[in-house]
Each structure stands twice: as structure tokens, then as C-alpha cells.
# Entry
Amino acid sequence: MTAVGNVAAVHADLPFVCFAAQDWWYHSRGHSEVQLMVQLARRHPVLLVNSIGMRLPLPGRSTQPLRRVARKLSSLRHGLCRIEPDRLWVLSPVSLPVPGRPRLHAATAAMVRAQVTRAMRRVGISDPVIVVTIPTAWDVVAPMARRALLYNRADRHSAMPGVDRTAVGGREQELLRRADRVLYASRAFMDEEAAMVGDRGVFLDHGVDLDHFRPDPGAGEPPDLASIPRPRVGFFGIIDEYTVDVGLLERVALGVPEAQLVLIGDATVPLDRLRSLPNVHHLGPRPYAEIPHYGRGFDVGLMPWLRNDWIRAANPIKLKEYLALGLPVVSTDYPEVHRYRHVVTVTPSAEAFVDAVRARLADRGPGTPADRRAAVAGATWQARARELEAVVADVLAARASR
# Structure
């Protein structure tokens, strides 16, 4: 199965439990599993389980370990919360991410499963469709009663630095074998695993909130952005060690000195050298609600990805957000970006990336702002949620016919 077919209806009371790779309380809510569950909660009861992690935040093995611990502890304070106005509940379970230590991981999985089961009882969910994004949730999910199991293969988590690749990779393999359907946002990634997954593989593209990320020429700029002169080339999102090429950002700042480089988002890697440049402005993280106000103030949107296994299997949502804003976009090369070559400049090297930034500041191409927004016009999260419902309907129908 290479793509989602006709959307079929599923009963509005069909419950979903999603084990997310993100945390509702401190990650961007633009991530795919969060957006999909928010949309599903308009029609279904949904329990979103915050990330149970894949690696202990220890010095020398992960960046900013104390900060990571502090924000997880802050998340735990929320416990189980209902997110109004829809039927969405968010659970922050107590967990210890130690997939490479089998006995301790098994005990943690049992502890998390007990918390999830208790939360399901409290909110009236039983026999749900289970969606797993983070592979370490497999040990939690394996014995749970469910109507269907979907593996949201949004990323190659075993390629994340600092994880126990054998342990995490093993759980990825279990999910690939045992899931009723495996959802891929990257066609290249789906093709790579086709021999194992077969017709259980489904391409479910990422979406974008078109209302949130919309051009608004009359809107004023946030004061901290308005104080930065134009032209501005910008990036919004987390700057971490396995996705963003900080050296490439430095080359842009040095190679296009007439432009101001604006960075919006948290950083989990040192940026002292980059911040020391006179035309670099790291404004730090901003709430998801405010991101479009900053993005509209960019003259060019940057996709400065590293060339690694993580990115090759990825389909960054940021591309659709930039295009929805109508921005010219310069990107490094990765498989999924080629679907948008008519409205995105894709570059093969660091030198070409810098040259392309300069060119896009001059000509504002390829395409027009309207062309770019049209390229993602059908990619709403509402549409993606309906496609996900169709996948579930297909699984349930197949089971009923046996």
C-alpha cells in the first residue's frame, strides 16, 4: 500500500491512544502526531501520552542534561490534563528511558503501562486504536488490548545521537513486524523498508495549519524582529545536534553579510561562535502561536539540514510552513524535498547553499508567494486526519472480513 486511498468513515466514538515522541508541555505543537491527535479529538476520544524518552540525559551523552531533566520534571507536574474544548487528554507519565538495560526497561514499561491504563479508565477509553511514534513505547504497548496498532514511522529514531542503537533499533524492528499499518512521511524511507513491511506500509504525508501559517502583509512585526534591519534570512525550530548544520548557518552569515540571519527557537548545541557574528540574531524559543508572526518577517526561509541518516528519512514540516507563508526557500538536499523543486531551491553543497541564499534575496524565486502556498493548499492537518481515519477503517474492515 503506497498511499492512502479513499477516506472511509470510522465511528466517532472510536478511541485513540497515541504514544508521542514529543511532550505537549515543552515541544512545538506543530509535530505530526500532536497535530493529528488534535484533529482526531474533534471526533474521537484521544489520550496523548507524552514522550517516555529513549536516552537518559547524562553529561557526555546528551546535550544540556540538567535542562532536559528540569523540563521533564515540569511536565510531570501536569499529570493527566484535559485540553479543551475537544476530547483530548494529555498524560505525562513517570518513566526512566533505559532501553539498553532490559530488566530496568521492562520494569519502567510496566510502570508506564499501569499509568496509561489508569488514565484510560479515568477518561472512559477502552480497546483503543494505538498509535506509536516513539519506538521505546513498544514494551508498554505489546500486551495492551487494542483494536489496531499503527506505527507512525516519522523518523529513524535509532539514528539519533546518544541512543542505544541496538536496543532502540530492536524495538523499531518489532513495531515494523507487529504493526497493522506503518505510516511513513517519507517515500524514500517507505521504499527502503518495503521488503519487511510490504503492503502494510502507507504514505501519510505531513500537513500544515494553513490558517495559522498564512501571509498577512498588514500585520505588524514583533518588536524584537522589527528592530532587525532587512533583508532577513531566517530559520524557526529547534537547533540540535542531529538535524541542523550550525556550520552552514555560520557560512551563510559570513557569506551573505548584507543580510541579517534570524534564528527563532531553542538550541541544544553551543551557538557562541555563531552568535558572535554581527549579523546573527538568535531570539530564542517562541510559542507555536507566535511563530508565523516571525516567519512573515523573513525574506528567505532556510532549511540547513545535516546530511545524515536521520534527515534522509525525514520530511520536515517546516518546509510546508515556509511555503504556506509564501516564503522563498533554500534547502539542503534530502529525498522528500524534491517533490517541491518547482517552488524550492535545493542545493547540493554548502557553497551552493550560500550562493542560493544570495540569489533568492535578489530574485525572490522560484515561483511567486501564491505558487508556494498553492503547492501545499491540500496539505491541511484536517485532511491528514481524515486519511488516518481511512487507514484505521481499512484495518478494521480487513479484520471484520476474516
Observations:
- The radius of gyration is 21 Å.
- The first strand starts at residue 16 and ends at 19.
- The chain has 16 helices and 14 strands.
- Residues 102-123 form the longest helix (22 residues).
